[in-house]
Amino acid sequence: MGCRHGGIWTGWTVNNNKLIILRKTYASLLSPICLTIWIVATVVAIVAGPFGTFSVLAFLERLAFWGLISSTSIVLGYAGVAVANMLWSDDRAITRNLVGAALAILVITTNVWAISQMPVWGPEERPGFGLLMSYITLITGAASLVKYLAQTALPWAVETPVAKNIAHASPRLMRRIPDAADKFVLHLSVQDHLVEVTTQEETHLIRMRFRDALDELDGVEGYRVHRSHWVASSAVD
């Protein structure tokens, strides 16, 4: 439910924006740098066998154990980051990043501690919650530093085309399209007195002026390649 204001359901808009932020956060998992960090961390843990797993577990057991820990930790840790992204906007980036990191560390530590209670150590002592949190804090800080350096040196390796599209998934123009929550605009063109809006799924005809349609894109990056055609930069190869 939402309150209607100026012809727009504001409650729906707020929830939709949060969904977009959540999807954008998780879409960054598919970026080359995040996938590289994920794979490298998993391989290092399997080979090194920290917390006594090298002596207690065989190679295939370490593969399953650390694969489970790394995969679930990445997914759950990103949930903490997504919550911070939904609560704080870009003008409070420091607060957002600190809270996101703290939530991620807490969630990942809880996840690793719960998995470490599995009966795989035998007589070996299981690592405590505090020790795990200290190690995870160091690892998270190192991974964040690597990602930051990669963003500076290799910006193409951080953002995926999906994340780039989702970043502008809901300009005002999309509110004229039914069920537009999961759609983003790729192309606009003029058809007589109508504007044809092409999304990743289908096309829609809207009765409005082309100039007004461009105004309602709300800064979505793109190019007016002809007086009757506009193309989103994320749709260009």
Describe this structure in words.
Residues 185-237 form the HTH LytTR-type domain. Pfam families: LytTR. This is Transcriptional regulator, LytTR family. Keywords: Membrane, Transmembrane, Transmembrane helix. InterPro entries: LytTR_DNA-bd_dom (IPR007492). Strand 4 and strand 5 form a beta hairpin. The model is unreliable at 1-16 and 160-169 (pLDDT under 50). The strands form two sheets. This protein has a five-stranded antiparallel sheet with strand order 5-4-3-7-6. A two-stranded antiparallel sheet has the order 1-2. Helix 2 (32-48) packs antiparallel against helix 4 (59-87), helix 4 runs antiparallel to helix 5 (93-116) and helix 5 (93-116) crosses helix 6. It is of the alpha+beta class and 237 residues long. It contains eight helices and seven strands; from the N terminus they run E-E-H-H-H-H-H-H-H-E-E-E-H-E-E. It has two domains: 4-160, no CATH class; 168-235, OB fold (Dihydrolipoamide Acetyltransferase, E2P) (Beta Barrel). The chain is 54% helix and 13% strand. The two termini are 40 Å apart.
